[in-house]
Design a protein that fits this description.
Elements lengths: L16 E5 L6 E7 L5 E2 L4 E9 L6 E2 L4 E5 L3 E12 L2 E12 L8 E14 L5 E3 L18 E2 L3 E9 L3 E3 L2 E10 L2
Length: about 180
């Protein structure tokens, strides 16, 4: 099959399909498709969501603007990073984070009290903090369900914590990667 180049919109009333052809057998497999609604259906496609505007508190403690992200049904969170949009300024102290299924919870990413800033006064804008997801027991007699998976839509709470008062709240964005299973 040849390549085609278009200089306008590609339109279809019956959707599109991306296929893969087995080089040995010639079998054709649909990798992704769209219905006439335009919604892409694909198993195991990575998506990205955001919780923005999470700030450092003017008094030590939890963020006054805990970020919220709605995790869609039948998805697994695979990665979370924290991006510093605007630099906060605090007295010499720590800035940390936690991510959970409840406000100020740490079920998905355990509380890290000083991983963004450890004994400092500011975080440089555009700093990226890489978090570690909570791991489930892998070798138990009964393997538990993963806290990163949900079969129904749920709210995920993203919190910034600080140990001393802030004079400038700054702003952080949580970048949440997840995979649709069904």
């Amino acid at each position: 099959m040849g390549n085609s180049t278009f200089s306008g919109p590609v339109r279809s009333q019956n959707g599109f399909q991306v296929i893969s052809t087995n080089a040995t057998t010639g079998a054709v497999t649909t990798v992704a498709s769209t219905a006439s609604t335009g919604i892409v259906t694909n198993k195991y496609v990575k998506h990205v969501g955001f919780a923005t505007g999470v700030t450092v508190n003017t008094t030590a403690g939890d963020s006054p603007a805990i970020g919220e992200f709605t995790q869609p049904a039948n998805t697994i969170i695979t990665d979370i990073k924290i991006f510093c949009d605007t630099s906060p300024v605090i007295g010499t102290g720590d800035i940390g984070y936690e991510v959970g299924t409840s406000s100020s919870g740490a079920q998905i990413v355990a509380a890290q009290t000083d991983e963004i800033l450890d004994g400092g006064t500011t975080v440089v804008a555009h700093n990226v903090t890489v978090t570690s997801l909570v791991l489930q027991t892998q070798d138990g007699t009964t393997a538990p369900a993963s806290v990163q998976y949900t079969d129904t839509a749920r709210t995920i709470y993203c919190n910034i914590t600080n140990t001393v008062d802030a004079t400038t709240a700054g702003s952080f964005t949580f970048i949440i990667e997840y995979v649709q299973i069904a």
